[in-house]
Design the sequence.
């Protein structure tokens, strides 16, 4: 077989082609099919010998004694650097992603949700993104009497979101008390974020509001509890159905069960996204590296920057280990580039 350097080079070439064929066919790869693809050419007997050595190194394995070989998790990871040397993204995929970003008028959670869904649709995997936390601004506040000593408070945000709270009250609250309290709040908090509104009410109520009825003043003072931080989740996931299909086909019921445990999945995915933000480069996590403890999972993640160059989030794709890395890696990277163009 020649010297060790030659053997290493040939073995790596065989492994590269075996992985390529497996990702294309999603089926075990036989020595004859592998020999036909190799450049420079090798005989099937030589290929079988090299594949046997790769199997001893736990880089490939066989599902059955008489079947071809598939790459192991270790084997896939050993060739991932090659996929990070990205091929250009197709013009069609570029234009599709660009159109989605350009169609959004503002940087908002809705923009991130739409782009994540588009990434999922193009990749046929789940799209994931760690987005900035968007704190909504207030449009107005309204109060409605429910029953004795209870009031329904409604916070209407500028984005149309409505948040409802039931407040306990003291005394015989009438409609004019509700209106007086709402008028006072709406005159001062429109356009403020929730924490800004909370700070205003807390400061304003340190002194008596002499021009206001006592019960109305009590209602204004009690409203400070309404303005709790109402941040949206940082993690957005779209296209979970692609994953469920993958794991059902692989009979990977453990991962399916873990995926359905939403809190665990969010924690693990946020950890991967944070690792990418910290390292500031495109990364591929395969198998157990994906934190979902499954040999059937892989995650491709890229960080995105704001206009000052600071890394502010990460976007990626979660899918099966046989995903089309040549297409998906540049797709994820280009999506991160587009986000960097619109981030303030």
Sequence:
């Amino acid at each position: 077989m020649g010297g060790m350097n030659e053997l290493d080079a040939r073995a790596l070439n065989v492994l590269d082609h075996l992985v390529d064929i497996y990702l294309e066919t999603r089926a075990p790869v036989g020595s004859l099919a592998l020999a036909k693809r190799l450049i420079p050419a090798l005989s099937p007997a030589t290929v079988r010998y090299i594949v046997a050595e790769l199997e001893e190194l736990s880089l490939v394995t066989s599902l059955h004694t008489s079947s071809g070989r598939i790459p192991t998790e270790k084997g896939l990871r050993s060739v991932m650097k090659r996929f990070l040397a990205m091929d250009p993204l197709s013009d069609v995929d570029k234009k599709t992603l660009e159109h989605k970003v350009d169609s959004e008028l503002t940087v908002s959670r809705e923009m991130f949700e739409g782009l994540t869904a588009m990434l999922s649709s193009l990749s046929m995997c789940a799209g994931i993104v760690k987005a900035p936390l968007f704190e909504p601004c207030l449009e107005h506040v309204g109060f409605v009497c429910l029953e004795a000593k209870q009031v329904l408070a409604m916070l209407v945000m500028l984005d149309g979101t409505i948040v409802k709270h039931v407040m306990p009250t003291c005394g015989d609250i009438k409609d004019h008390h509700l209106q007086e309290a709402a008028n006072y709040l709406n005159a001062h908090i429109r356009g403020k974020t929730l924490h800004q509104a909370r700070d205003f009410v807390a400061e304003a109520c340190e002194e008596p509001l002499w021009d206001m009825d006592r019960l109305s003043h009590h209602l204004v003072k009690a409203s400070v509890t309404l303005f709790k931080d109402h941040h949206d989740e940082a993690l957005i996931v779209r296209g979970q159905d692609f994953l469920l299909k993958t794991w059902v086909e692989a009979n990977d019921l453990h991962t399916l069960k873990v995926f359905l445990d939403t809190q665990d999945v969010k924690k693990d995915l946020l950890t991967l996204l944070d690792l990418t933000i910290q390292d500031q480069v495109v990364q591929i996590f395969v198998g157990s590296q994906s934190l979902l403890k499954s040999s059937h999972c892989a995650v491709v993640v890229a960080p995105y920057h704001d206009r000052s160059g600071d890394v502010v989030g990460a976007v990626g794709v979660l899918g099966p280990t046989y995903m089309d890395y040549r297409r998906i890696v540049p797709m994820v990277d280009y999506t991160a580039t587009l986000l960097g163009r619109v981030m303030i």
Residues 87-133+233-342 form a domain with the Beta-Lactamase fold (CATH 3.30.450.40). Residues 1-7 have pLDDT under 50 and may be disordered.
